[in-house]
Amino acid sequence: xxxxxxxxxxxxxxxxxxxxxxxxxxxxxxxxxxxxxxxxxxxxxxxxxxxxxxxxxxxxxxxxxxxxxxxxxxxxxxxxxxxxxxxxxxxxxxxxxxxxxxxxxxxxxxxxxxxxxxxxxxxxxxxxxxxxxxxxxxxxxxxxxxxxxxxxxxxxxxxxxxxxxxxxxxxxxxxxxxxxxxxxxxxxxxxxxxxxxxxxxxxxxxxxxxxxxxxxxxxxxxxxxxxxxxxxxxxxxxxxxxxxxxxxxxxxxxxxxxxxxxxxxxxxxxxxxxxxxxxxxxxxxxxxxxxxxxxxxxxxxxxxxxxxxxxxxxxxxxxxxxxxxxxxxxxxxxxxxxxxxxxxxxxxxxxxxxxxxxxxxxxxxxxxxxxxxxxxxxxxxxxxxxxxxxxxxxxxxxxxxxxxxxxxxxxxxxxxxxxxxxxxxxxxxxxx
Length: 432
What we know:
Shape: globular
Largest sheet: 8 strands, parallel, barrel
Radius of gyration: 23 Å
CATH class of the largest domain: Alpha Beta
Structural class: alpha/beta
Number of domains: 2
CATH architecture of the largest domain: Alpha-Beta Barrel
Helix content: 40-55%
Number of helices: 16
């Protein structure tokens, strides 16, 4: 009864010893290679990581914050005839709104209604010409993002600079508490870019904006730019992606000899794994993506509804609310810090993204690489790679190519027709 427990099986072993043991037990010298997997192109993942895999100099920089809090934003469409009704349905469940401003005719009335309910408003697809008319509807209490994208509207650096100068003038007059520029990494991801491509393109865009702001002589570099990104179903890749973003933004700031400051990262759930069948599956997918965003320390979270019903709009917002209020995900800063796997994955994404960023710069920078079609060609190549993986069954889609179930398609209007979804090839071929 008093004999000590034998703890020798739990002694610390090196990675080489573990590999030797696995190879011996599986009786296969290639066992480790067979256990590797590749969810993202050029990101080869081992089945286990050890302390010696860490580069302790690459740990995410401390954000200097007291908690892991984020804003829960409700997505609203200004072009919807039911905007006011949707506003009423979500207001009590969110911290602010992300308003798609494509319908300019109803925009003033809709913004007036939204601004009366919440102080935090983020704009998407907002025409720069509409900024002046919206300025009179907002007060000094309002804050958020104007969501402007000068590099998407101009093909020359001089045009980007002129656009930013106009924005800064309007900001100082009407939008003191708003950031001006958004880097829409999510738009590249949603049309099929890999994580590495999205991060690399975003860094190139950031460089274009820093060059323009620096030439203007603006001292507002710290709060003019935000990043928008989206996450798919790979929980760990999503966490590492956000952490890599922060590390690489700091590296770009070093290049401009700037003092380090965090760029706000606004994360939305992705369409990539969403399907037109079993909307409850999409609800679960949204939860995984939201959890990854929060663990990766997002500043704002936008969870798109699983379908078009008012119940789904509220449920989407409550994913964020449950993770904050009942799961206490906001209480601990960077809970993934120090994880062998996530730290290694962060470094891997950082290294590959930096290389892709440098490739864009070698093409002449974002504006040049975009105008020549080089960026679109890279994304198209990755999109085809993702399609092939799905057809081969290497990428699983529940109820589509795995655990198939006979069912009818649901409302496809829920999805952006320009978004890349892995299940769309099955839907088009009538296999659902």
